[in-house]
Amino acid sequence: MNKRELGQSDIMVSPFCFGGNVFGWTADEKQSFELLDAFTDSGLEFIDTADVYSKWVPGNKGGESETIIGNWLKKSGKRDKVIIATKVGKPMGEGKHGLSRAYITKAVEDSLMRLQTDYIDLYQSHDDDKGTPFEETLATYTDLIKQGKVRAIGASNYSAARLKESSEVSKANGLARYETLQPEYNLFDREGYEKSWSHFVLKII
């Protein structure tokens, strides 16, 4: 299967990604392990999750998906065979949200601990935090990349205009840039993405 590069990150992935929001929600740990084994045994490697998965389930507090993936990584020994993407920014409790330096610095350590790994391949801003300057957020990500805790960064749920602005800030300040975009876009939810992007030409080089 031909692999594709995530932006200009040098991270190569198959064109199918396993969405980990089901772990700790509709799939318990045993079933999650079976799904992950079947996925990777098929030659696929790209697994996406978020710190907030699956906080919406009664009795959960967030982090359940990352914890299950971390337990599977430890049991399977497949860390070097997979690409792990996770996210930060959605509300995780009082004072735990957004993309400030202080919060990202704490949240990434929590995710690394739950995932039982030393690094995250793709660390994504789960929501646009308009209350935090791009300079602060991107400088924080740049430091994490330099520290080896993150390989590349991506954006989720950003408008075309805001993604373009973030790219300009990255270029002007020599900071890490968002290499990927994960929008809400499917057969049911189309309008928001199409309105934001249909008349917008975006070129990030």
Can you describe what's shown?
This protein is globular. The chain is 37% helix and 17% strand. By secondary structure, it is α/β, with parallel strands linked by helices. The longest helix has 15 residues, at 101-115. It is built from 6 helices and 8 strands. The strands form 2 sheets. It has a 6-stranded parallel β-sheet with strand order 3-4-5-6-7-8. A two-stranded antiparallel ribbon has the order 1-2.
Helices, strands, pairings?
Blueprint: E1 4-5, E2 12-13, E3 17-19, H1 29-41, E4 46-48, H2 64-76, E5 83-88, H3 101-115, E6 120-125, H4 134-146, E7 150-156, H5 160-173, E8 178-182, H6 191-197
Helix pairs in contact: 1-2, 2-3
Tell me the fraction of residues in β-strands, as a range.
15-25%
In quaternary terms, these chains amount to: single chain
Distance between the termini: 26 Å
Count of alpha and pi helical runs: 6
- Cα-based radius of gyration, to the nearest Å: 17 Å
The best one-word shape is globular
Largest sheet: 6 strands, parallel
Strand arrangement across the biggest beta sheet: 3-4-5-6-7-8
Q: List unreliable stretches of 5+ residues.
A: none
